Amino acid sequence: MSMNADTGKRLKLPGSMYIKAVAVAVALAIITAVSTMWGSYPTLVAITIMVFYVYSLSWSLLADTGMVSLGQALFFALGSYAYGIFVISYGMNPLVAIFAGPVLGALAGLVVGFISSRLRDWYVGIFTFALTPAGYALAVSSQLSPWTAGAVGLAVPRFPLPSTAWLPFSAALAFAAYIVIMLIQNRRIGFALSAINDDETAAGTVGINTRFYKTIVFGISGYLAALAGAMFVALYTSYIAPDYFGYPDISYSVWPVFYSMIGGMGSPEGVLLGTVLLDPVETAIRSWLSSISVTGGNLALVIFGLLLVIVLLKAPKGIYGYVVRYIESRRTKSGGRNGTR
Amino acid sequence: MAAFFIPSYLLSTALYGLLFTSIYLLLATGLTLIFGTLKLVNFAHGDLMILGAFVAFLFVTLEGWSPYLAMIPAVLVIAGFGVLIYRFTLKPAAKTSPVNMILITIGVSYVLENGLAYYFLPVYRTGVEIPSPLRGMGVLLPSNVLLTYDDLSIIVISWVIMVVLYYWLFRTKQGIAIRALSQNPVGASISGIDVSRLSYLTFIVGSALAAIAGTLYGIVFTFDPFTGILLTLMAFAVMILGGVGSIPGTMVGSAIIGFATSFVGYYMGQTWGEAVAFIILALILLVRPSGIFGGR
Question: Contact at 8 Å (CB) between B138 and B149?
């Protein structure tokens, strides 16, 4: 299956990866500094930007390999539950648990990836999607309720850093996730992945073990999504609910799709653009509509769902596609001028 | 486990299994018809079903119609609504890459669910059931199990519709044209079949099946705006289990999923009953991705 049949080649700005990494670091630092100075509410929103950036990166890493996950919330929720259970039931230091918990997400990712790598196109979507009710059933089941507290959910203790450090900490994690994606894309594994995305059969015939790579990618994606889930509960909600599994309300599985696709598929910078632009707008519109009507939040989700559908139909390269096109057109223009001189 | 062998439990659980089977059969047949003919993976199918149930619910509670009569406006509204959705989102979606197509139908499902929730939740708050005048009446089976007239009519209606559908697809000119379209769209259009008209007809029939399934579901089970996603997944599980595009396969698939849902749900709790369908699905995908009756 080929993503690129429709969206064109992977969106790439000309320029070295170091320049891009510095640009992303600067952008994250600016968001951190501005929202910290602005006040406590903007700081909270900025933390959700970091969380959803990591989460969206985990989704778009899979989509870049031609695997569309509709159940990414499975890993997100596993990460948050693992974090909460390690801290509450086993007394682990939250600073350790935020990295140890997501290992469970990575293991789940490897298992899901092992099966998914044998499936073609939309079967991966339906398979991952179908795992979320199973995850939900586990979370609320009476057998596991001593650890998960069933449908009530878990309240996690306060994260042991001073609250002023929460945003810089999450920004650092977001940057680390970006670097991981960057390294994957610019190493042998990245070239294998983009070959798989372009033409899986051809990739197989030149000796790329497509199933192995797909499984590994799913493991990495599972870790990142679970890390986002752990960050979400540790630094933002302090509470874990079974609906983090994206079931029965599929929101938790849709958000990374939303930020990645509207921001710009295939590039971690585009995903950052999507998250930074949309997350605060979404939060603002949702809280505004919720203050007007009980179900105003649902109306906001209708608006965002429509936006997603329209973008997918009319501009499948997302916002970043326009940015890339603009910069390239500027560059060719100036290049032409240099030539005539 | 001892309770497992009490005949009345066994019988009533089997009865629920039969109800689930009949409803999943209608739903999954619509899904497999749309997928087989239009090559469209429609994740909004279950939401169309719940929308149909809600339309019937409004006609029953506000206009005082019989739920079986309310099926008619539900089918008309959902068929019309389905045409609009198909024309403006799903038809263009089918031309894009598979990834985009899936994400677009997910987006449509998200819009339908939250749109319904916006109107539904302030008024009804929790799940609703379509009130039936026949409620509580029925035939007493052995070991004190009540087979209500509602259960009976739901099972009869679904299987009658399946027979009609089968006749239409395999014995009429139009049905044969649709099957030709599903096998080879180019060949079908060369032999003079109006592909665009038949595509719309297929989507209308698929949506109508969803609306009927929704109304029948609403008569015996409670539903809320977010039930659709579970039903979509159930329909996909049935479709993959039975093999995409095969009607006998869909029958076997819906029987397996229907009885598994009711038995596991009864003995382990409802959430597990729902989850077991997807555990079966995962196993099938691992062992035989083309399904039991699948060709490949």
Answer: yes
